[in-house]
Design a protein that fits this description.
Layout: H1 2-16, H2 24-35, H3 40-55, H4 66-70, H5 73-91, H6 97-105, H7 120-129
Helix pairs in contact: 1-2, 1-3, 3-5
Length: 132
């Protein structure tokens, strides 16, 4: 587990863009984080998302500090939730920002067409009718 903790802290420092010395508290926090099933990639992904939000004024700079990422059960739960939300957002098909703007400006839909999409009521009706 020591190698994983060291790798996690190194990935955090790299994503943060500065060297933060490993402290005993940090080791405990990383242990708890990894033991909870949160991956290093999840933490880095959440950090990157938070840094983007800091740039646009939706978050504050301390949100990327280690104590606000993994120091408590509540912080770990927040990272897990944010990571799952980011992953879900990435799965949704979207056009690049520039293309969205051009499509909107020309009166076209800025969302990709989704084929074979049915409303949930149709699916439930098919299930209850036994036609699935």
């Amino acid at each position: 587990m020591t190698e994983q903790i060291t790798a996690a802290h190194a990935a955090y420092c790299k994503a943060l863009g500065r060297d933060v010395p490993m402290m005993p508290a940090f080791e405990r926090w990383w242990f708890d984080c990894l033991h909870a099933g949160i991956t290093i990639e999840d933490v880095v992904m959440v950090m990157e998302d938070r840094r983007k939000k800091i740039k646009i004024g939706k978050r504050f700079p301390p949100s990327v500090l280690l104590r606000n990422l993994i120091a408590s059960d509540e912080a770990l739960a927040a990272v897990a939730e944010e990571a799952s939300e980011i992953k879900a957002r990435r799965r949704k098909q979207t056009f690049p920002y520039g293309k969205q703007q051009v499509l909107k400006a020309t009166g076209r839909s800025s969302e990709p067409a989704m084929e074979n999409v049915r409303h949930v009521s149709e699916v439930l009706k098919a299930i209850t009718d036994g036609t699935v």
